[in-house]
Design a protein that fits this description.
A six-stranded mixed beta sheet has the order 6-7-8-3-9-10, with helices on both faces. Strands 2-1-4-5 form a four-stranded antiparallel beta sheet, covered by helices on one side. Helices cover 38% and strands 22% of the residues. It has two domains: 246 residues, 3-Layer(aba) Sandwich (Rossmann fold); 125 residues, CBS-domain, CATH 3.10.580.10. It is elongated, with a radius of gyration of 27 Å. By secondary structure, the chain is α/β, with parallel strands linked by helices. Helix 3 packs across helix 4 and helix 4 crosses helix 6. Bound molecules: adenosine-5'-triphosphate and magnesium ion.
């Protein structure tokens, strides 16, 4: 959808802001550009909508060289969100949002109706906020208006330059989540600049890690964190990259343990025999519908004590309720947090209502390793021309 071919930007004073950059953003893909201040992120972005012209190379949008496009027409196809939102201070929130549709020739009333829809979409009730002026909003609310306005012409492409950079971490996380939700229905092609690796990891389908004017690595968050391509990338993503990786790796069926399973109404003696045949210290207990109930220890089954003592004991008498469960697809970080929170040695993993298996700390570790190797061998979703990466 957006293709950079050997793009270089040299400023008049000799600064090379972007150096022979080649990569492609697939349709509907969100790539985060992350890197330290001055490494060329904003320059990269502004060359797409021709706020800056490259010195060398070309940028194709949907196969068309942007240099051949009329800049005004080009910018209609490209929404642009920046940190200092740049709202008109003397216009209401609704009018700010309606400006673009109106400019595009929609009658004023229709433009305002569309603007109200967009405000709703970004979580601002138009009845409450529509008539306010920008200085009557919080920083986070202003950023939302910025996003609504960028979406107003329904552009297929969005350029976002640190759009959530100016708000505090809590609001930022909220805006990120809202944006992810929005993106999951809108499927825009997005270049998103940030210098926050956490934000890059949370939002990006892929992350481009910038060194000075160059991309050091372009890959999925799991691979960038799990297998940094260069020492620079390793340092940039941080010594705690293993922890960060937990957030981007989901629990999959192949990660699970399958301890023996017994039913609530099984006689204890029969269940005990099944476990000892297996040599298993405990079993998962399912109810009659196959939903997980809890667990039972082999010892307890073999020698029922207390009120359960006696020949007629069933698993129900000896089972303990399950501490916790998570659905398949849960990020490992959340699974680990659930494990710790319940002080549990394992979690039941569900597929809908159905029990699928058990996640243990050892299995969690295995899942992390699986994620890295799988991503390293699976080719990334989009075709990448990475001739700017050292060693390729
Ligand atoms: N008009 C200009 N003339 C000369 N040098 C410039 C100009 N604009 C930007 N630069 C330089 O180009 C380099 C890249 O700038 P750019 O704005 O792309 O960085 P950035 O990665 O967006 O940084 P930040 O995270 O601070 O926003 C910097 O060294 C900057 O000083
Ligand atoms: Mg910048």
């Amino acid at each position: 959808m957006i293709r950079f071919e050997h793009v270089t930007k040299r400023y008049a004073d000799g600064t090379t802001a972007v150096d022979d950059l080649s990569f492609e953003v697939a349709e509907g893909e969100l790539i985060t550009l992350v890197g330290p201040s001055g490494c060329g992120k904003t320059t990269t972005m502004k060359m797409v909508n021709r706020l800056i012209e490259p010195t060398d190379g070309r940028i194709l949008l949907d196969g068309e060289d942007v240099a051949d496009a009329d800049p005004v027409e080009l910018r209609r196809r490209i929404g642009y969100v920046i940190q200092q939102v740049g709202l008109f201070p003397h216009k209401t929130v609704l009018d700010n949002t309606a400006t673009v549709p109106h400019l595009l020739g929609r009658p004023r009333k229709a433009a305002r109706a569309r603007a109200a829809e967009l405000l709703d979409l970004v979580g601002l009730d138009p009845a409450v906020y529509g008539d306010r002026y920008p200085d009557q909003l919080s920083g986070g609310q202003r950023q939302r208006v910025g996003v609504a306005r960028a979406l107003a012409a329904d552009p297929p492409v969005l350029l976002m330059d640190e759009p959530f950079g100016a708000v505090d971490p809590v609001v930022r996380e909220h805006l990120q989540n809202e944006f992810l939700r929005l993106q999951s229905t809108l499927h825009k092609t997005v270049l998103f600049v940030t210098h926050d690796i956490e934000e890059a990891v949370r939002l990006g389908d892929r992350i481009a890690v910038y060194g000075s004017g160059r991309i050091e690595q372009l890959d999925t968050p799991a691979t960038v964190l799990g297998a940094p391509a260069t020492p620079y990338t390793a340092e940039f993503v941080g010594a705690d990259r293993g922890l960060k990786r937990l957030a981007v790796t989901p629990v999959e069926a192949a990660d699970l343990d399958e301890p023996p399973v017994v039913r609530l109404d099984d006689p204890a003696a029969r269940a005990a025999d099944a476990l000892s045949a297996d040599g298993a210290p405990w079993a998962v207990v399912l109810d009659a519908d196959g939903a997980p109930y809890g667990w039972v220890a082999a010892d307890a089954l073999a020698a029922p004590e207390g009120p359960a003592a006696g020949r007629s004991a069933t698993v129900r008498d000896l089972a303990r309720p399950m501490a916790a469960s998570v659905p398949l697809g849960t990020p490992l970080r959340q699974a680990l947090s659930t494990l710790l929170q319940h002080d549990a040695g394992w979690l039941a993993v569900l597929d809908g209502d159905r029990y699928r298996g058990v996640l243990t700390p050892a299995r969690l570790h295995g899942a992390l390793r699986r994620a890295t190797t799988a991503d390293a061998t699976d080719l990334p979703r989009a075709e990448v021309a990475l001739d700017t990466v050292p060693g390729t």
